[in-house]
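Table 4 source record.
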Amino acid sequence: MNLRDLQYLVALAETGHFGEAAERCHVSQPTLSAQIKKLEDYLGVQLFERQPKKVSLTEVGRLIVERARHVTQEAADIRELARASRDPLTGRLRVGLIPTIAPYLLPRVTVKLRRQLPDLLLMLYEYQTGPLLQKLRDGELDLAILALPADTSGLETRSLFAESFVVAMPRNHALAARKRLKPADLAGEKILLLEEGHCLRDQALEVCGTVALSEEQDFRATSLETLRQMVAAGHGVTLLPRLAAEGPIASARGLEYRPFSPPSPSRMVGAAWRRSSTRGTAITAVCDVIASAGR
């Protein structure tokens, strides 16, 4: 049993397909298949149930894959530790962001990151909070940018900047006549929200608190841009984070944005990473740039 065998094992478990796993590992499918079979023979257990178009883990296979992920991640950390000791601000850094942050924050920070950290290659990914944190814990990501608080047990976290909420409404809406709003002003309004699984949905409901809202029951958006277009079409109002209501991307026709009166409700944008990470210097540098750009 060697490290390469464990990498093949993890790849096959994650893809469920010999061809895709072989492509990910940059080997031929027969090579990967043969090595998986040798590993099963060595361990004396069947790791996968083989079906015509897919494979699935056996019960013992799931347990072994979980350990294999830790082993392969530790090996990757050893390589990164050696690289970071030579120059901590070079190499690849895998950064995941939640969908309600990524498209609005990245245009503000990518030029600054490239200028200040020219030798650091950022690999950017987008996931909802739950999958994002799982991939971070599994070692598939080095850094997560998300809304805090979240279930970050066992991880290091850092608050980056507070982002206030604004109300998005159709241009001819009665509330557009006001310069600032209070949560109570939304009483009775039909509010459009993201689908379950987006933390912004829970945050929006928390902002509205005790206000008697009428959520649109026949509509659940999968993105803020869908929400924005539905509001512009006159189907209701919604709450957006400040960055999503600024810049060219926010200029949808027929929309108005109004801030809340102080103290404005907000969310905390933060970072999370593994305590065992060997990329601490690079993570700190990236977080410093993001914190500065978000203020």
